[in-house]
Amino acid sequence: MNDRSSRILDYISSLSPERKPVVVELDELLRECGGDIRPSDIKELALNGYLKLLYSEGETFCLQPTDKKLPEPVRDAPVLRTQAKGGSFKAGFWGGVLGGAVVLILAIAVFFIIKTL
To answer: 23, 24, 93, 117: which sits with the fewest CB atoms below 10 Å from its CB?
Structure first.
């Protein structure tokens, strides 16, 4: 959720402290919550359970606030940087070569055993 969602939810909750349905116009939301409000913001809040959208007709919405609260904004966690050591690449490379050689030797051994039978 974003800042627009928070402003819409706060405004609707202030209109209906008892959590009763309230009818609002898009113009009213634009005026009270800022000029960047879109109808899709209201529908997103309704789909996620923060508001009940009882009906919408053009630019008129009947909304009922729910008890669900918006999550707190997540702060970016610090990124831990690790350096890959050259030894890990070498170990993986030589492990692959050795594993391939073992498989090849086993295949040749099975071939000669089957051929001699």
So the answer is: 117
Beta bridge partners of 17: none
* CB 22 within 8 Å of CB 12: yes
Contact 7, 33 (CB under 8 A): yes
61: Cβ contacts below 8 Å, ≥ 6 apart? 23, 24, 25, 26, 39, 42, 53, 55
Q: Are 70 and 19 in contact (CB under 8 A)?
A: no
pTM, 2 dp: 0.58
Q: What is the DSSP letter of 55?
A: E
